Amino acid sequence: MIYVAVGLSAGTLVGMAIILSYVLGWANKSFHVEVDSRVEACINALPAANCGGCGYVGCSEYAEAVVAGEAPVNKCTVGGESVVVALADIMGVEVEESFPYFAIVHCAAYYDDRLGRHEYLGEQTCAAANLIADVQGCIYGCLGFGDCVRSCDYDAIHMIDGLATVDYEKCIGCGTCAKACPTNIITITPFKADQILAVTCSNKDFGKDVTSVCKVGCIGCKACTRASDIFKVENNLSAIDYDAYSPGDLENLIKVAGKCKRNRIEFVGKKSEKDPGKN
Q: Which ranges of the chain does DSSP label H, i.e. alpha helix?
């Protein structure tokens, strides 16, 4: 009797194993999805940083978008030109001119430059302070609590006297600092040269209102627009058209920077022996 029971149990198990094997085999064939081999090739070419700087959740999602034709091959800010060339080779497309992307902080007001600043005793984060009125007079500028610093995995941005300051030797343009900033004063911008001009202010108020809250803010005087076509003033704030920006016209760019009465048009980027901002 015992042997019969054991035999029946073993037979049942063997039968179930055969049936399950058949079902799994059928499911594998029925639900199999062909994966384009170029996706894996693109994933291998990417740096696996998964930083999100390309606008996608991670390198795998970006690779799929590239192969699907939904994204260009030059969106990886971490990999730079070498990754662009590799992806272009995999996709069989021509490499378009690409530039490295870095962060620009559009504020230059240190603590002493900010008027109407009050002691804030709440949660020491920019996100929390941004919800409170009267932390400082300028509602557009850097709050100085370092959310951007904590978000950066590359130690590329620091707080100096209450102002977020980019270390361009370490910045890879991943964009995490820009996402962390509640006042949106950080942009990820293509650098056509080691140093480029930037408007280091974000205040959109009229000039007299700007001077009442900040010692250095842009007053929208339009002197820059009269000096160069790459500038425009919108909502009382100067802005640069980087598509039209030409680093080869360095002498003129230096002159334009000198036209700003508040010195808010500055060269930013990697320092070199010949710093154009010092000429």
A: 2-30, 37-45, 59-67, 80-91, 126-129, 147-151, 176-180, 207-213, 223-227, 250-259
Based on the fold, state whether residues 155 and 213 are members of the same structural domain.
yes
Taking each helix axis as running N to C, give the angle between helix 37-45 and helix 59-67, from 0 to 180 degrees, rounded to the nearest 10. 130
**Computed over its alpha carbons, how large is the radius of gyration of the chain?**
27
Q: Which range of residues forms the domain containing residue 174?
A: 101-278
> CATH code at 59?
1.10.15.40
Among residues 102, 68, 98, the alpha carbon closest in space to that of 85 is found at 98
| One domain for residues 58 and 174 | no
Please tell me what DSSP assigns to residue 106. -
Q: Are residues 164 and 113 part of one domain?
A: yes
Residues 6+ apart with CB under 8 A from 199: 106, 218, 237, 238, 239, 240, 264, 265
Q: Is 121 exposed, middle or buried (0-12, 13-18, 19+ CB in 10 A)?
A: exposed
- Give the model confidence (pLDDT) of 192-248 as tens digits: 999 999 999 999 999 999 999 999 999 999 999 999 999 999 999 999 999 999 998
Work out how many domains the chain is built from and give that number: 2
Assess if residue 3 is contained within a domain.
no
What single-letter DSSP state applies at residue 195? E
Q: Which two tokens stand for residue 49?
A: 């940083």
Q: In this structure, are residues 106 and 186 in contact, taking their beta carbons and an 8 Å threshold?
A: yes
**Tens of pLDDT, residues 194-209:** 999 999 999 999 999 9
Q: Whole-model pTM?
A: 0.78
Q: Which amino acid is at 242?
A: Y
The enclosing domain of 254 has a CATH number of: 3.30.70.20
